[in-house]
Amino acid sequence: MKKILDGIKLPSDVKKLNIEQLNLLCGELRDEITEKVSETGGHLASNLGTVELTVALHYVFDSPDEPIIWDVGHQCYTHKILTGRDITGIRTEGGLSGFPKSAESEHDIFVAGHASTSISAALGIAQAKKISGDEGSVVAVVGDGACSGGMIYEAMNNAGRSGTNLVVVLNDNEMSISPNVGAMAKYLANIRSKESYFRFKDNLEHTLLKIPVIGKGIFSVLRAVKTFFKDMFYSSNTFEHFGFTYIGPVDGHNIEMLIRTLRRAQSIKKPVLVHVNTVKGRGYKPAEENPSKFHGVAPFYKENGELKKESADSFSSEFGKIVCQLAENDEKICAITAAMTDGTGLRKFSEKYKNRFFDVGIAEEHAMTFAAGLAAGGMKPVFAVYSTFLQRAYDQILHDASIEPKHVVLGIDRAGIVGGDGETHQGTFDVPVLTTIPGTVIYSPADYKELRTDLEKAFSAKGVQAVRYPRDSEKDIPEEYLADYRDFNYFKGEKDCLIITYGRLFSEAAFAAKETGASVLKLGKIFPLEQNPVDIAKKYSTVLFFEESVKNGSIAEHFGTKLSEAGFKGNYNIHCVSGFVSHMKAENAIKLHGLDRESMKTAVKEALK
Amino acid sequence: MKKILDGIKLPSDVKKLNIEQLNLLCGELRDEITEKVSETGGHLASNLGTVELTVALHYVFDSPDEPIIWDVGHQCYTHKILTGRDITGIRTEGGLSGFPKSAESEHDIFVAGHASTSISAALGIAQAKKISGDEGSVVAVVGDGACSGGMIYEAMNNAGRSGTNLVVVLNDNEMSISPNVGAMAKYLANIRSKESYFRFKDNLEHTLLKIPVIGKGIFSVLRAVKTFFKDMFYSSNTFEHFGFTYIGPVDGHNIEMLIRTLRRAQSIKKPVLVHVNTVKGRGYKPAEENPSKFHGVAPFYKENGELKKESADSFSSEFGKIVCQLAENDEKICAITAAMTDGTGLRKFSEKYKNRFFDVGIAEEHAMTFAAGLAAGGMKPVFAVYSTFLQRAYDQILHDASIEPKHVVLGIDRAGIVGGDGETHQGTFDVPVLTTIPGTVIYSPADYKELRTDLEKAFSAKGVQAVRYPRDSEKDIPEEYLADYRDFNYFKGEKDCLIITYGRLFSEAAFAAKETGASVLKLGKIFPLEQNPVDIAKKYSTVLFFEESVKNGSIAEHFGTKLSEAGFKGNYNIHCVSGFVSHMKAENAIKLHGLDRESMKTAVKEALK
C-alpha cells in the first residue's frame, strides 16, 4: 500500500502535490523500484539515484508535449511509473521493457539503449518545435558516463547556438567533490539560478578560477573525462563556450531546489545545461555502498542485497581467463574495453597487466582506431566489446583496420540473442556487417574449449580477426558430438538431410540430429567460407542452415551463394532471426525464431517427408 | 628546374638545409604542387597551407621512426614529395594516391581518408612505443575542420593523461582572429614556448581571460566549433584540462618559429598540443582568394586558376534542385549535411530555406540521430551524405531510426565506384550494410528523372528511405530502354538469358542487351525485394546480376536467396566489386571489375554457348 503513489496515474497527478507529498512520493517510488527489481533483476542504482530528478522533471515539464529523452535510458523506471505503468516483471516477457519504448507510452518519445544519443535526438525535436513555432521545451537527461561518447560533443557543437528551447540535464552521479568546493558550488548554484546571474557572471568566473580542481594521481580515462567536466564547471565554463546557459550544480536529491532550478531552465527559452549531482543507489544501503554491483543486477534479496543465485561461469569470464593466460606468454598482447571491464571479463587482466590494459570509456569508434594504432605500433590488441556496441565502430573497422590490414582481435561478447535487454542490445547484426568488410575473419565457438582455440588462432593470424560468443554459459552437447573442433566439423548421420550451424546453436543442432538421423556440419571459422564444407553440403538433397543473425548478409546467405555457384540443385532453407527481437529470455527468443532443437527436428522431418 | 627540391630524396636531406634554404624549398614545393595539381586536379588549398608545417615536421622529427599521421590525409602532398615521391599524375591510375598509403612508402604509417581519426591512431602507436620503451614521438596533424568529429574528443579524453610522447598539431586554417588578439596571441606563443612557460602559466591564464573572444552573430555550426576552439585557446585552456601541454598559436608560415616550437614539443616527452595558424591556399593567389573552390579542384589553368572544363550537371546538382522544389510545397522538408553543402548539391537549399537547413559539421553520427529527432518532431528530414561517410552512422540508422521507425530520407551521394579518391572513399558498402537493418527501403535511380520519382516516393513513405546515386552525370541509355521507370522494369529480349542490375549500370546493361538479345530486369526500388521480379527471373536458364557493391550482402546475393527459395534451378552468376577499389577513373574501375557493357556481353555470350 503506497499512499501517494497509488494516486498517481499520470504526470498531471504529480503536479498537484506539495513539497512534503513529493518527498513522500519519492520514498514510495524507491520502495517500489527496489522491490520490483529485486524480483526480476534490472538497473537499480541509477534508478534510485534519479527518483527526485524524475519527479521534479514531471512536476515542471509537460510530457509528452515537452518530451523527456533519457540517455542511456535504463534510468527510466521512475518515469515509467509516473506515466502510469506498472514495473512488475520489467525486462521479462510480457512485462515492460527496461528502456524507453514508444509502443508502451506516448511519454517514451525516443528509444535509447545505446549511450550518448540524447542531445542529438532532443535537438532534432527542439528544432522541429522551433520551425513550427511551438514554444515548449525539450529535455535530454544525460549521465556523466555517456559524456565520453563523441556524439555528445558533436551534438553540443550544434545545440548551443541553435536558439531552441533545449534543456540538457547532466546527471552527474560519480564526481566526488571535496567539501569546500562543494560548498562553494552550492553557493554559486544558488546565485546562478537567480535573475541576477547574468550580471554577476563575470565576477563569478573570476572567483571560480581560484578553486583548485585538478587532483594528483588521476590517470584512468573515466577520471580524465570526469576531471574535464569538473574543470569545465568550476574553472572555465566550456558549456557556455558552446553557447549553453549553465546552471548548477544542484543537489539532485533536494526536490524543492530541483523544481526551482528546472523552472528557471524552462523559462530561459534557449539552450540550458542543468548540472545535477545525484548519488547512485540513493536510499538503498547495499546499492549506495556498491553501486557498481547494483548497476545492472540479477534478482536479489531485498533485505540484505544478496543475489538469489551466484553468478556462474560464462563465455565472458572464460574469455578473460584465456586472454590473461595468453598475455602471460606474449608481452605484445593488449586489451581494450569501452567502459565494460567487468561485463567483458577483463577485470583480472586490468589488474594484472595495467600498462597493457585500456578502458577508453564509452567510445567504441576511438577504441577501434586506437586498437589499429596499437597494431601499427607492433602490439597485438584485443578489443573486447558487446556485439551491439561494435555497431558504432563499423567505419573504423573498415577504414582504419581493413583497407590497410591491421592485426586487431575483436572479442565480440553478447553475440546473437541477448535476453532481457531487448531490441536495442541484440547481437544479431555483427556477422552481416563484418562480412561486408574484405579480409575479415570470424570465428564462433560452441564451447569454452573452442573459444580458447579460436582466440589462439586469432592472435597468431593477421588482419581483423573476430571471435564472437554468446552471453551466459556454454551449453550441453551430446557426447558423440563432442570433438576437437576445427574450422569445420562434419557429423554424418544416416539421413539425406544436413543441418549447418555454428556457435551456441550447435548444441541444439547436435540434439536434433541425434534424434532425427540428420547430418550436422558445424562451422568454427564461419568467415570467409572455405570450399570443403560447401562440397560436403552439395551432396545432400536438403540443407538447413540455422543462425542467430538477421538473414540479409548472414553466413547462411553467403553459404547459399557458394552452394549455388557450386551447382547445388537441392533444397536450401535458411532459418534466421526475423527483425528486431524484443526482451525475453534468450532461450525463449531462440524458440520463437525457430532456432531451437524442436524447430530443427520439425524442419528435418518436413524435409524427409 | 627546382634547385633545392631536386636535391631532396629523403627527409634526412631536409635536415641538412639552413633556414634560408628551407624557405626557398617551400617556394619550390608550392610551385611543384600547384603545377601538378593543375594538371590532374586534387586537393590544392590545404596542401599550399601546410608546406612550411610539413617541412618543419620533417626537419624536427625522424619519420618513419617518429611517424607523422595526417588527418584527413589529403594535405599530405608535401609529405609525399619530401619522402621521395613524384606527385605527377597524383590521383590518376598508376600515379600516387591522394591520401597516405602504406604501400607507397614506409613514411605513410596510417591510412586516412575519413576525418577525425588521427589522434586515436597516433595514441595507439604512442602507447605501443611506451610499452616497448621507445622514447620517440608520434605526431598527429589535425585540421580544425576535423575537430567537429566526435572521435577527436574521444581520443583527447584518452590521450592527455596517457604519459606518451604524443604531439598533436592543430592545423588551424580558418579562424579569423582580430589583429589585437592576434598580436597578443603571438606574444603569448613566444613566452609559452620558452622554458619559463610553466612558471608563468598562472599569470598568463589570468591575462588570457581578459581577451574578449566571442563575436556577435556567430550562428553556423562551423563557427560554433571554431569559436569553441578559439575560446579554449585564449580564455581557458581546455586542452590542458584534458592533460595536454599547450603551445601556441604559432605562425604556420614562419619556418624558424615552427621548428623552434616543434622542437620544444618534442622535448616535453608527454602529450603536447601545438596550435598552428595557417592560410589555406597560401602563396597561390586564386586559391588564397577562393580556398573553398580550390579545396578539391578539377584540372585548371595555373596562370589564372580557371577550370579547364566547366563543371557539368550531376546527380548531386539534380538532387539539390529536386529537394528545393519539393521543399517549396512541403514546409516540413528539412535538409542536413555533414560539412558537404556544396558536394551534396545543397548550396541553394541552404540559402533558400535557412531555417530548415542544418550543416552539422563533420559529424555523421550526430547528423543521423538529429535527423531521427527532427522526424520524431514531425518534420521530414533528408540527410544528404556520401556513401562512404554514412558508414560512420550505421549504429544510428539502426538504433535511433529503425528500431522505432523514424521517417528519415537518406540522400546517398557518391554511391558505387567513385574514382580518384580511391579505397577510402568508395561507395560500395552502403547497400550491404543498409540491407541488414529491418525496415530500410532503398532506391537506386538510373537517371535524373528517376531520381525525382524516387525522392518523391521516399518523402511520402515511412521509416528509413534511402535514395542512392553515383557521382557525376547520368549516362546515355538507348532509346528503346528509356521508360517511366518504376520499382522494376522488365525489357524482354529474344534470348534465354537475363541481366539484372540497377542504377548507373543500367546504361551498360541496356547497351549489352541491345547487342546480344538478352533480357534486362532493371530494379528501381532495390530493397526490400518484391516477389514479381523473382518470378520473372525464375523462368530463365541463366540469370546474371551486375552490381557496384561488394558481393557479401549485395542485392545480388539477396536476389539469389529469393530465387533459390522460389525453386530456381538455373545458373545464377553474381558480378560484383571485389575487395577495395584503388584510385582510377570510375569507368576504368567499372571495366576492371567486369561491370561494363563489354564484360556483360561476354558473360551473356558465355551463357548462351
Could you characterize the architecture of this molecule?
2 copies of one chain form a homodimer. By secondary structure, chain A is α/β, with parallel strands linked by helices. Chain A is 41% helix and 16% strand. The first copy, chain A, has a 7-stranded mixed sheet with strand order 9-8-10-11-13-12-17. In chain A, strands 2-3-4-6-5 form a 5-stranded parallel sheet, with helices on both faces. A 5-stranded mixed sheet of chain A has the order 14-16-15-18-19, with helices on both faces. In chain A, helix 4 (51-60) packs across helix 12, helix 16 (364-376) runs parallel beside helix 18 and helix 21 packs across helix 25. The termini of chain A are far apart. Residues 175-236 of chain A have low confidence and may be disordered. Chains A and B meet through helix 6, helix 7, helix 10, helix 16 and helix 18 of A and helix 6, helix 7, helix 10, helix 16 and helix 18 of B.
Tag the structure with descriptive keywords.
seven-stranded mixed β-sheet, five-stranded parallel β-sheet, 41% helix, 25 helices, 609 residues, homodimer, globular, alpha/beta
Say what oligomer this is. Answer: homodimer
Q: How much of the sequence of chain A is in beta strands?
A: 15-25%
The major beta sheet of chain A can be summarized as:
7 strands, mixed
Spatial strand order of the main sheet of chain A: 9-8-10-11-13-12-17
Using a beta-carbon cutoff below 8 angstroms, give the protein chain pair with the largest interface and the number of residues from each chain: A-B, 113 and 113 residues
Q: What is the helix tally of chain A?
A: 25
**Category from helices, strands and their pairing of chain A:** alpha/beta
Total strands of chain A: the figure is 19
Radius of gyration of chain A: 26 Å
- Separation of the first and last Cα atoms of chain A: 59 Å
Summed over residues and divided by their number, the pLDDT of chain A gives a mean of 90
Low-pLDDT ranges of chain A: 175-236
General form of chain A: globular
**What is the share of helical residues of chain A?**
40-55%
